[in-house]
Amino acid sequence: MTEVLNETQLVLIERDAAKKTAVLSLNRPEKLNAFNNALLDQLMDALAELADDDDISAVILRGNGRSFSAGYDVVSGYSSKTAYQDWRNLQEKIDLWERIYRFPKPLIASIEGHCLGGATMLVSCCDLVIVSETANIGWPSIPLGGGLLSPVSLWHIGMRKAKELSFIAGNSMSGEEAADLGWANQAVAEGTALESAQKMAARVAKTPLDLLYLKKQALNKVYDRQGFVDSLRSGAEWDAISHTADSIGEVKALMKDKGLKGAIKHFGQS
Fold first, then answer.
1. Domains in the chain, CATH or no CATH each
2. Are 212 and 220 in contact (CB under 8 A)?
3. Considering the entire predicted model, what is its pTM?
4. I want to staple 14 with a disulfide (CB 3.0 to 4.6 A). Which of 23, 71, 97, 163 is the partner?
């Protein structure tokens, strides 16, 4: 029987003690589960709680409503006065994604609807990914930065596809394509991602918890030596540098002139 033991405003924790699994739900559906500071803080608190729970062996991360997450909430975002401050702010965000990567238990992302911008970084740091065939895994619609998302994603999808997604504003891949490229483990019928993730989590949780920890450490250590975390962290440097480019002012002027939707349409034209 599933028992809800802890409910917070922006992140919900649901434990299934019998199966040794838990589901974390991003709970800001009216904003497509966009990341603001409160949601991210609660997510990290929930993960810390589950990391110390020896009755839970595998954790599923999903979004309530019709989408996994629209990425960073630009409305509640930060503004930086200098490139150094920009870099520090970006590094603080990346600290969170490295904590996702180093979470001691298998973390399974379950994706329906949109997974955009910064949300792709979160998922790239998870262990396993179940995605709806019709899901939309998207890059930023307006070129206001550079080198943050794609260097991490290329580890899963390869250099050619990473460059295609990076160079073309608003580019995306479907859930089916994401599975074909290796970004996701499985692409399943729309509306069944959570059910499929729960089945996978239950199978994973049959392996003793201490062995799961050692298996994850063994695999992550190889990734560490190959440079995965370096790629994750260096993205802040490239993004901070790109924010000082002359063209950023031109893009912002275009947004002011045409509005957000008009600017997205401009860069999305073939």
1. 3-244 (3.90.226.10)
2. no
3. 0.90
4. 23
